Amino acid sequence: MTPFLKKVTLFSSGGPFLDGYVLAIIGVAIDQMVRNDELALDGGWISAISAAALVGLFLGTSIGGYITDRIGRKRMFLIDVVAILLLSLGTAFVTTPLMLVVMRFGIGLVIGADYPIATSMVAEFTPRRYRAISMGFIAAIWYVGANAAYIVGYLLADVDGGWRWMLGSAVVPCLVILIGRWGIPESPRWLASKNRIAEAEAILRQMFGAHVELEPGPSTKTRYRALFEPRNLSKVVFVGTIWLCQAVPMFAIYTFGPRIMAAFGLSEGRLSVLGEVLIGTFFMIGCIPAMFWANSMGRRRLLIGSFAIMTLALAVLGALPVAGTWVVIVCFAVYAFFSGGPGNLQWLYPNELFPTDIRASAVGAAMALSRIGTVVAMYVLPGFLSTHGTRATMVAGAVISAVGLLVAIPLAPETRGLTLGESSQLRLGRREPAGDQHPSPARRAPAGLR
Question: For the chain, what is the radius of gyration of the CA atoms?
């Protein structure tokens, strides 16, 4: 894991960092806008501003991956960060709610596009023995971004016009990410898939040395409709389902946020923002051991075991007539800790299960599928909670998590130890690559590309 490869992982994680940052900062900013009667926001505008970035994320992931597979990783790697920077700067100067909705939609669009770009770069550069760790790092960085936003919000909560500084503050990490990404070359695997062998070999020699070889393979034209072929569509649905079954109950467990904050004395005023940092930290910590478990116990066992424990934690909260504070905290901590398994694998699996020519497209499609459920949950959950109560909400979360478990048991493949060329040939539920699929053209290489 050379310094160059660490740089690729670090700055590729900038997209998830910005996703966590911009989704978290808007909540703190809106609170101040409402208190100070800025932009004359009513309930409708608040909902529209809150949802705009999520809608943009859905569209961005849907089309961003395909564009990345067509024109290359490096070009999109830089374009999207510049776009996020300019749009974030623009949000600091809005004068109407509509302007803010449009800006937030645009930010969501380009951040959504960054996910398939960045994860493809990491998967295609990282040695296979470190691939799970690198993807786990990307998953954990989302919570780092959210926590950073809450801290910035806490510091600016009592500043006059602080919401403008909050929204514009994303410019700073954008600049850092842009500088870090500038010298990262195009993915040799992508170049090889487009029959640009000489360029791919030159990058390999530059990055890894003269001993690196690029095994010849067929060049492949990116076709988005290839995602709808049975062998690929089933994988997209599988990844999207486990993604959704991890994300939707997470919103349910967040309903216990106020009680957890109160237990630590973080339920009032500015301190409630620090309570959000505490919640995000729980989930971030869960990503760390999962980075290593994906290699030690394997992807399949990690996914099945994590969903089983997460389902149990939510079921306990739903079954107890009255859950004491410490029971709530323990169940929450258990759920958050083991959510790191599916949280990491939802990034790792799509990058391992699809060939280079549609890898980014597949990541985007799976993420878009999961976002549909996430957006629906955000609107359904508050009404369901008020109508049926907390216990029923936890039971519903346990049922959704159980669906993830039931899908994982027969379908989750084991990709541990395989090259990207080998793992992209796997059928769901199998350990051995299927022989009827073409291997990825850029397989034979030193550890750097395996």
Answer: 22
d(C-alpha 181, C-alpha 25), whole Å: 24
| pLDDT, tens digit, 9 for 90 and up, residues 175-233 | 999 998 888 888 888 888 778 888 888 888 887 777 776 655 555 666 777 777 888 88
Distance CA 347, CA 349 (A): 6
The domain of 150 spans: 1-184
Query: Could you tell me if 411 and 205 are in contact, meaning their C-beta atoms sit under 8 angstroms apart?
Result: no
Residue 256 is given by DSSP the state G
> Are 307 and 342 spatial neighbours (Cβ–Cβ below 8 Å)?
yes
Q: Are 28 and 273 in contact (CB under 8 A)?
A: yes
Q: Which residues neighbour 196 within 8 Å (Cβ) at sequence distance 6 or greater?
A: none
Q: Is 20 contained in some domain?
A: yes
CATH code at position 37: 1.20.1250.20
Whether the Cβ atoms of residue 304 and residue 412 lie closer than 8 Å to each other: yes
User: In this structure, how many other beta carbons lie within 10 angstroms of the beta carbon of residue 235?
Assistant: 24
- Cα–Cα distance list, 46 to 56, 225, 269 (Å): 16, 37, 20
Is residue 96 a part of any domain in this protein?
A: yes
168-180 in b/e form (b: 16+ CB < 10 A) is bbbbebbeebbeb
CB atoms within 10 A of CB 215: 14
pLDDT tens digits along 21-75: 887 888 788 878 887 777 877 777 887 887 788 788 888 887 877 787 777 777 7
Cα separations (Å) of 250 from 39, 125, 215, 275, 290? 32, 31, 43, 16, 17
In sequence order, which ranges of 157-195 are alpha helices (DSSP H)?
Answer: 162-168, 171-181, 188-193
| Helices 3-12 and 171-181: angle between axes, nearest 10 degrees | 150
Question: Whole-structure pTM over 0.70, yes or no?
Answer: yes
Which amino acid appears at position 155 of this protein? L
How many Cβ atoms are within 10 Å of 346's Cβ, its own excluded? 25
Residue 107 CA to residue 85 CA, distance in Å, equals: 9
Say yes or no: 180 and 227 in one domain: no
Contact 291, 133 (CB under 8 A): yes
